[in-house]
Structures are given as structure tokens and as C-alpha cells.
Design a protein that fits this description.
Elements: H1 2-14, E1 20-31, H2 38-52, H3 55-62, E2 69-76, E3 82-91, H4 94-106, H5 117-126, E4 133-144, H6 154-163, E5 166-174, H7 188-196, E6 199-200, E7 207-208, H8 213-226, E8 233-234
Helix pairs in contact: 2-4, 2-8, 3-8, 5-6
Length: about 240
């Protein structure tokens, strides 16, 4: 009997824990390249903190089949500079949302050179593997104020991620401030439409300046959390 019990204990110990079902596995991938100054970076961070604790976002989370989502917060810049600022976290109510937002608010804000949208997509796509969650949808949420200028073209990374069943939504930040002597990119939203977003129901929400970022991210979070899976794939 002891041998049988020991064998059963060994089998159960060796079995991997079942993944937690959620409505969406969401990577928030945020640009921290040097084209974003400290004041703008702070506005961007505060935008996520405010949006994640807004009652409309919490209601969207509760409205899903499972009533919970898994969120991971990533910061990115050059092709080999991506950081998981906050790892995968289950959000199901106001308490868990506020805990995530509070942790995010306390994190130091980083800044690095170059802008690699492709690197951000590649890094974020790997985070879905064996993360302990099983989502009805897998989504990468890319926000940034510039085009890809480091690493392979963004559309190549986008296409590979979509082939794995991942949807990429975009939040381009438009502003009229020159960056390192170069004029602002007035067509950044078009670039996100053609080269960045993809997958079932993919969409872009434009933030017209960093001051408008909080409302833009709130609108986007509600839209991507509340929507249902469909078969339409966009490139």
C-alpha cells in the first residue's frame, strides 16, 4: 500500500498544473525609446494605471465568458531591448486590477535608444508559451510614437505572430514634436494599419498626443477585452 501511495504521489507531483482558462491573454507592449521624454513616459504610464482601474474596463473584464483576463506588461525599445516589467497576472475584479496598477505605478520608468516594433512583437509572442493560462484569445497590444528603425521589418514579425493565432492591436501616438531633429511622422497611424496590426478583429486606436493617451488606451482596452472571437483575419 505504501508503494502504491508513493507511486501515486510521484505521478501527481510530476503532472503539470492545469492552465487557468481566461477570456484573453493580453500583452501590453509599451514603447520606452528615447523619442519619448520623461514627461511623456510618465503620462503614458499613468494612462495605463488609470485605464486598468476604470470601472468601464473592470465591467468589460467581468462581462466575458470566464470573467477574468491574464495581463503582462512589457517595455521595449531596440531590437534586443525588451523587458517584462510585470509578469503574467490574473485580473478578475477591482481588487486584482488595483493591485496590478499599483505595482505598475511604483516601477521605475526606463528609457533606451532605437525603436524596434518587430523586436517587441517577437518578444511578446514568446510570452504566451507555457505561461499558466489558456485564453480564448491571444492579443499583443503595441503602443508607440515611431516606426520600426531597428531589427527586421515589423510586418514580418506581425505575419509570424498572426500565423500562431495571435492578434496584434495598435495604439500609435501622434504628436507635433520633432524627434532628434526629424519632423514628426504624420502618417504613423497608416503605418500601424499596414505594417503592425493583424489577426482576428485587429484594430488601431489613435492617441493624438500624450495628453490623450489615457482615454485612448481605455477605449482600446474595453474594445479588445469585450469583443468576441471571430474568423476574420486582418493583415
Amino acid at each position: 500500500m505504501r508503494r502504491i501511495l508513493a507511486l501515486l504521489a510521484l505521478l501527481f507531483a510530476a503532472s503539470p498544473a492545469a492552465a487557468i482558462p481566461v477570456d484573453i491573454e493580453l500583452v501590453l507592449a509599451v514603447d520606452v525609446s528615447r523619442s519619448i521624454d520623461q514627461d511623456e513616459a510618465q503620462l503614458q504610464r499613468e494612462g495605463y494605471v488609470r485605464a486598468l482601474t476604470d470601472e468601464r474596463v473592470i465591467q468589460a473584464i467581468r462581462s466575458g465568458l470566464h470573467g477574468r483576463i491574464a495581463v503582462c506588461y512589457v517595455e521595449w525599445a531596440a531590437a534586443h531591448l525588451q523587458f517584462t516589467t510585470i509578469g503574467w497576472t490574473l485580473i478578475k475584479d477591482r481588487a486584482s486590477a488595483e493591485a496590478f496598477a499599483g505595482k505598475l505605478a511604483e516601477m521605475p520608468i526606463q528609457s533606451h535608444s532605437r525603436t524596434s516594433v518587430s523586436g517587441a512583437i517577437d518578444y511578446s509572442a514568446r510570452l504566451f508559451v507555457n505561461n499558466g493560462y489558456e485564453g480564448e484569445r491571444l492579443v499583443i497590444d503595441i503602443s508607440g510614437d515611431g516606426r520600426n528603425n531597428d531589427g527586421r521589418p515589423a510586418h514580418l514579425a506581425r505575419n509570424e505572430a498572426v500565423a500562431k493565432g495571435i492578434t496584434i492591436n495598435g495604439l500609435p501616438i501622434l504628436n507635433d514634436r520633432p524627434t532628434f531633429g526629424f519632423p514628426p511622422d504624420a502618417n504613423l497611424d497608416v503605418y500601424y494599419e499596414t505594417d503592425v496590426i493583424g489577426g482576428p478583429g485587429a484594430f488601431v486606436v489613435v492617441a493624438r498626443g500624450f495628453d490623450a493617451f489615457a482615454e485612448a488606451i481605455m477605449s482600446k482596452l474595453i474594445r479588445e477585452i469585450a469583443r468576441r472571437p471571430d474568423d476574420a483575419v486582418r493583415y
